Amino acid sequence: MAESTTVSNTENLMKYMKLDQRGSVLAEYIWIDGSNGVRTKTKTLDKPVKSYKELPEWNFDGSSTGQAPGDNSDVYIRPVAIFPDPFRGGDNILVMTETWDSDGTPNKYNYRHEAVRLMEANAKHEPWFGLEQEYTILGPDGWPYGWPKGGYPAPQGPYYCGVGTGKVFCRDIVEAHYKACLYAGIQISGVNAEVMPSQWEFQVGPCEGIQLGDHLWVARYLLYRVSEEFGAKITIEPKPIKGNWNGTGLHTNVSTAEMRKDGGMKAIEDACKKLGERHKEHIDVYGEGNADRMTGEHETASMDKYNYAVADRGASIRIPRQCAKEGKGYFEDRRPASNACPYRITGIMMETMFGGMDGTDFSKAES
């Protein structure tokens, strides 16, 4: 593996990890910061909990995370979901939270709050989501792991779902992350090596409603934590290497109760038409730097155009051939970049398909 930039000795660490916590439980509070990253801090609890509703609200210095000014820096984190902690084990937990300002309103980077409202208002449609998170593994020097220093490997072709030395890199990180997700109860449905060497993908879902966003964000956290232990870096930048190399996306699979019924193809096509009417609004929230990826090449559509088609990976929206054959199922929005926020993706998807609500507008620009 890559040369580690952290001081870590697993054998020594395990002596302390095995110590009795004397009834205390460690809760790792996770939140999304002002630059679309994850931050965490640990709270000691005096007993195990079975629900996030048993956990206290907490706070942090928002001026250090890009979420508040220095003269009014307290930002509050409210628990919304809990997961078993694969790093500490036992009764210790990971806690997904929402960020709130001191005046009782959602922080401007709290996209979950609006998404929940839309999910609850449209629960009768039973929305299912499945997201395909692509990412690239880098060495400490910021260059893709396994690539020649300052150079490039052989052209793309043998790496997608590849097996063997020289075709795949850092599989141990991928396997460790997979097991960590399963232990934590993440609805991870698979992994595979991607088209560019050192590029990988994991899939989360299908999940109903807001659960998808919670599970994907915690899965990202787990990936970052696992990579620490191997001295590697993770990037979800949409086009980490310029030139004739595939970018990284967050392909979004969507299905509703109406789409899953016999004759559901009409509901799929109706949704695709609505998505086309708001193409720009979706692109605006589908991730930073997406223009470098969505060029119409490397299995992407052009950012400036919108279309949907059966089995076409160069389309904005792909309808799987099997779904077209059966006349029901789901569609895949291939536009989101790998660094997009899943709450924003699923939120604007619900807004476009079923209409907005007072106080929600996922197409608004960040200020």
3D structure, described in words:
By secondary structure, the chain is an alpha+beta fold. It has nine helices and 13 strands. The strands form two sheets. Strands 6, 7, 8, 9, 10, 11, 12 and 13 form an eight-stranded mixed beta sheet that branches. Strands 2-1-5-4-3 form a five-stranded mixed beta sheet. Strand 1 (25-32) and strand 2 form a beta hairpin. Helix 3 (171-184) packs across helix 4. The protein is globular. The model has no long low-confidence stretch (mean pLDDT 95).
What descriptive keywords fit this protein?
367 residues, alpha+beta, 8-stranded mixed beta sheet, 5-stranded mixed beta sheet, 9 helices, 23% strand
Mean pLDDT: 95
- Based on secondary structure, the structural category is alpha+beta
Q: Largest sheet, if any?
A: 8 strands, mixed
Helical residues, percent: 25-40%
Report the portion of residues in β strands: 15-25%
Roughly how many Å apart are the termini? 41 Å
Put simply, the count of helices is 9
Q: Evaluate the radius of gyration.
A: 21 Å
General form: globular
Q: Count the strands? A: 13
Unreliable residue stretches:
none
The H-and-E topology, N to C, reads as HEEEEEHEHEEHEEHHHEEHEH
Summarize the entry for a quick read.
This protein is an alpha+beta fold. It has nine helices and 13 strands.
